[in-house]
């Protein structure tokens, strides 16, 4: 094991050398002092942490060591000592989200958690499932397929965007509820529009109407403080590879105790008829989904601790710092591009979405990735997502603010946009 770090360093060097060609017309900004902790390419201004996250070097090194142990003794690692790695990670996660370990299981991503919940529902013909127009497409597809198979109906609440107050969100969702509504799937932080929904208000309004809530919290852990039992949703699933910065493949599903008995994982394996002493049936069903690489889950506790030690004020200071940077970045871009912010800063977390200027709005859609997004990457080395949504459809730009970013990154993006 003494030589395992050299493999991680070689992998890191290889990762840093993979980047697309680009020609810089204006000087790139100096990097944040925290940038050195990540393997991000030095030639790229990375403003898209929200899509896939980015894992810090120390956590990648831990994962590399764990993988070496797994490959040296696969049966020991994956069979005899599996729970010895899994349980400390689960307990660390439980403390982080103020939950009981028995109510938590790991999954590979939030979409897998949504699949487990929605496909376990015992829907009848005529039942309704509620979502919003700002949901995540992959999770919407789970609802569409499940409703189709059951003869149920998918109802979409139309949240306005731009908007002025959180009341507009609550009113839009409640208008779509009927006596047939069985489940509402709500994003904690919406993906393309980067809105932090007033989740606790929504859940409290839906409860007396007999509507269970499934929260797609893909972006929330690490971006927002979480107390899952106090939130009182029926189901909450979220990624840990985004703002917690665990390796990709780390996510969780929390389920209220009274909802656990009927829930099956997206992949059914041994746990349905092989109970383990000291574990709940819910954990038995989810903890083993067949042979896969479990090291992202095993790194979760270290990722929580490492990120929480970056600033003197711990996670609370990191969340405040990233939120303030997102607000400042949005102000820089809106002023330079002469566009209006589409929501109040109180509805932002560590991301912000702004409309593209009018001269960009008439460009036709083409290809898997927006043409101007490709130009920003190829010509300026900027990685930032552009998207189209809304009715009527508009073009938008979404920025992320992680500790390795700095205000100069967004001024550079604004300058690059003005040259397109």
Structure, described:
There is one protein chain. The chain is an alpha/beta fold and 420 residues long. The chain has 2 domains: 4-55 and 313-419, Aspartate Aminotransferase, domain 1 (Alpha-Beta Complex); 81-307, Aspartate Aminotransferase, domain 2 (3-Layer(aba) Sandwich), CATH 3.40.640.10. It is 41% helix and 13% strand. The strands form 3 sheets. A 7-stranded mixed sheet has the order 2-8-7-6-5-3-4, sandwiched between helices. Helix 6 runs parallel beside helix 7. The longest helix is centred in the C-terminal third of the chain and has 24 residues, at 314-337.
Could you outline the blueprint of secondary structure elements for this entry?
Layout: H1 4-17, E1 45-46, H2 49-52, H3 57-72, H4 74-80, H5 82-97, E2 104-107, H6 110-118, E3 128-132, H7 137-150, E4 153-157, H8 166-175, E5 181-187, H9 199-206, E6 212-216, H10 228-231, E7 235-239, E8 251-255, H11 281-287, H12 295-298, H13 300-308, H14 314-337, E9 351-355, H15 358-361, H16 371-380, E10 382-383, E11 386-389, E12 394-400, H17 407-419
Parallel strand pairs: 1-10, 3-4, 3-5, 5-6, 6-7
Antiparallel strand pairs: 2-8, 7-8, 9-12, 11-12
